[in-house]
């Protein structure tokens, strides 16, 4: 059980709630902040004060005053009208992350919602009721309006949710089965639910978790490729990397030496060649640079998952209310674009190592690792697939954050496109997993030709584990199935 406070959520706790389906509870202190914030909203309504989003329209309609008798309809209309996302839905994992992050933001006590609303969010998480949220339609400013509106629809008993087997079903059906009571939105609550960056952050944080694991996996796979190509280990000498000084580069070199310790397949300078190609020799420099980017992304996500991104903010327990722009996704948009580039580069250098494993002009292994070169193509087309994936990644890696388009009659005249950046980052990560799966398959085959008895002990353990998943290439077969099995294994193990 994870206790949420609004300011202490960690990436590891997000992992536990979203991937391990751990339950959540709200701290007593946070619930008191929610109550105090709500009292501030109640006072505004009672005193007939004019405050954006409580008794005014939204966006360009902010100058339209709403009668007190219509404030509930205002919130309901807001959710229904803004729930116009399109495209395939986000995964259940990402939808669950959106619930968690929106809950954590609201219990900070700056949004003016009732305790009943945050309790319902916690109930949805704990009973595993995950909204069906279309992926496309957010500009990444004014909040992730369309995606979060689909989340809010579920809270009022409308919209769709995922069933027990991943099927899409009516919210009302699941609420009835799980004895959940929908909420009737009151003043400010609809706006509080959709003003925020939780769609891009949810995609971003799940993507980061996956990217971090892939970055570690890419190192032992690269080390196995080093063995398959009898690479020169001297390039990982700590003095080389300390001379440059980047901590991440030093760490990658250290891990590479750890994986290769005790190997009888690696070589030293001048033993077989003087220098390796860059895709081998520069693993610490290239992977290390991607780790620098990942560290940056992690830092920004850790701030944002505990941020108040609502507008207006209810400050000093309702004594001060300020309209600002914390809903603007620019900090995360830039981080997501950085994540895209970092992961794309890990895939790029992996594809170059695949080429060195299969190209008979670049090694002394059987051509394309084929058991019968010419009669059988072996890994030839697997390299084509990797090349296709990294080329697709280059298109996806174009920064989304450099684009903007005005909306709401130019009232909202600069937007982040951060959700697009996050979605593309997630797509690049899925492509990268396929690329390193292909490198792993090729590396397994290469070291088999060299002699697995000479492998480094830690890499031998990996070889034995993943050989059970993808058998040796003794004949041409449907390698798409091998790539899928290896990708799934890398994702789950």
TrEMBL record:
PTM section of the record: Contains an active site 4-methylidene-imidazol-5-one (MIO), which is formed autocatalytically by cyclization and dehydration of residues Ala-Ser-Gly.
GO molecular function annotations of the record: histidine ammonia-lyase activity
One Gene Ontology cellular component annotation held by this UniProt entry: cytoplasm
GO term, biological process aspect, one: L-histidine catabolic process to glutamate and formamide
Transmembrane segments: none
List of residues that carry 2,3-didehydroalanine (Ser): 142
UniProt key word Oxidoreductase: no
Annotated keywords: Cytoplasm, Histidine metabolism, Lyase
Pathway: Amino-acid degradation; L-histidine degradation into L-glutamate; N-formimidoyl-L-glutamate from L-histidine: step 1/3
Any matching Pfam family: Lyase_aromatic
Substrates-to-products reaction catalysed: L-histidine = trans-urocanate + NH4(+)
Gene3D superfamilies: Fumarase/aspartase (Central domain), Fumarase/aspartase (N-terminal domain)
UniProt keyword Lyase, yes or no: yes
Major localisation: cytoplasm
InterPro entries in the record: Aromatic_Lyase, Fumarase/histidase_N, HutH, L-Aspartase-like, Phe/His_NH3-lyase_AS
Assigned protein family: Belongs to the PAL/histidase family.
NCBIfam families membership: hutH, PRK09367.1
Protein name: Histidine ammonia-lyase
Protein encoded by which gene: hutH
């Amino acid at each position: 059980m994870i206790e949420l406070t609004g300011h202490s959520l960690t990436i590891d706790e997000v992992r536990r709630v979203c991937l391990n389906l751990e339950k959540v509870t709200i701290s007593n202190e946070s619930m008191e902040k929610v109550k105090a914030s709500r009292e501030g909203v109640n006072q505004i309504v009672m005193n007939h004060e004019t405050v954006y989003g409580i008794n005014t329209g939204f966006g360009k309609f902010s100058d339209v005053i709403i009668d007190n008798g219509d404030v509930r309809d205002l919130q309901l209309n807001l959710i229904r009208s803004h729930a116009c996302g399109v495209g395939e839905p986000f995964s259940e994992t990402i939808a669950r992350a959106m619930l968690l992050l929106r809950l954590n933001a609201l219990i900070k006590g700056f949004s003016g919602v009732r305790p009943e609303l945050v309790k319902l969010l916690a109930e949805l998480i704990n009973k595993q009721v995950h909204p069906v949220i279309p992926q496309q339609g957010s500009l990444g400013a004014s909040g992730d309006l369309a995606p979060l509106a689909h989340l809010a629809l579920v809270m009022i008993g409308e919209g769709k949710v995922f069933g027990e087997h991943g099927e899409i079903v009516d919210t009302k059906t699941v609420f009835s089965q799980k004895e959940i009571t929908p909420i009737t939105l009151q003043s400010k609550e609809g706006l509080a639910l959709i003003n925020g960056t939780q769609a891009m952050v949810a995609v971003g944080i799940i993507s980061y978790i996956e990217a971090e694991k892939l970055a570690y996996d890419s190192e032992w796979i690269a080390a196995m490729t080093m063995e398959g190509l009898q690479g020169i280990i001297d390039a990982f000498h700590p003095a080389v990397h300390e001379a440059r000084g980047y901590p991440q580069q030093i760490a990658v070199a250290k891990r590479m030496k750890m994986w290769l310790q005790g190997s009888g397949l690696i070589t030293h300078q001048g033993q077989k060649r003087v220098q390796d190609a860059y895709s081998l020799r520069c693993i610490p420099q290239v992977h290390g640079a991607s780790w620098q980017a990942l560290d940056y992304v992690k830092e920004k996500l850790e701030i944002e998952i505990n941020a108040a991104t609502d507008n207006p903010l209810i400050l000093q327990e309702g004594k001060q209310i300020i309209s600002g722009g914390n809903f603007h996704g620019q900090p995360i948009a830039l981080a997501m674009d950085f994540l895209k580039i970092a992961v794309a580069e890990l895939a790029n250098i992996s594809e170059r190592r695949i080429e060195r494993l299969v190209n008979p002009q670049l090694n002394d292994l059987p051509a394309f690792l084929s058991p019968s070169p010419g009669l059988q193509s072996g890994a030839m087309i697997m390299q084509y697939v990797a090349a296709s994936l990294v080329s697709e990644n280059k298109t996806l890696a174009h920064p989304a954050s450099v684009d903007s388009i005005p909306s709401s009659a130019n009232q909202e005249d600069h937007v982040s496109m951060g959700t697009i950046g996050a979605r593309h980052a997630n797509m690049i990560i899925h492509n990268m997993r396929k690329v390193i799966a292909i490198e792993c398959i090729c590396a397994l085959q290469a070291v088999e030709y060299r002699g697995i008895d000479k492998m480094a002990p830690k890499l031998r353990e990996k070889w034995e584990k993943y050989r059970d998943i993808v058998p040796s290439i003794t004949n041409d077969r449907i390698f798409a199935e091998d790539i899928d099995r290896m990708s799934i294994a890398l994702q789950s193990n």
